[in-house]
Fold:
Amino acid sequence: MIEVVGEGRISTAPDQAIITLGVMTEGQNLEAVQKENNEKTANIIRSLMAMGIPKEDIKTSEYRIDTMYDYVEGRQIFRGYRVTHLLQITINQVGLTGRVVDTAVSQGANTISNIQFTVSKPDAFYNRALSLAYKDSLSKATTLASTMGVVLSKVPASVQELTQGSVAPVPYQAGMQAKALSTPIQPGEVEIVARVLVKYYFQ
Structure:
């Protein structure tokens, strides 16, 4: 029996961006810090919806209240509170990514933790990659059989999918930048990879 791993790769331009950004506020009065954070976050959401982004594509990914301390000569001294509210924004027009970032920053966003580019319907691309993976396994097995001087069976003994159909998004790590007309963000390409383990009989 001949056992080989086949791999297939498909590259395509992403059609979806997932942005994680939000507001971080600090101060000694927790109620005031929360209020400031809530107002800025609400302004960001309203502005994004005014751009045409559906409300269901804007969701909270993290909300956290931290107590801050300074350490002076081994003593812990209360400094205040930090409230962090992060939003996850899904955009189906990747060309708007820069505008979304700029709009959020103009409304008070001061932290951008991640931007990822992906495809909204990955199954079709993955199935194509899976087909290429099987063809790759057959090519490898045929080469091995020819080298060994044996005849490969036309039907494989077994086929095992080694991947789960997921598409790894392309990350874009974004820091706070000086405001421009539109933050230049390049999505690049998404690569979809499929792998199979195939066993072939030979004579």
In short: Residues 28 and 160 are 58 Å apart (CA to CA). The longest strand covers residues 75-91. The chain has a mean pLDDT of 89.
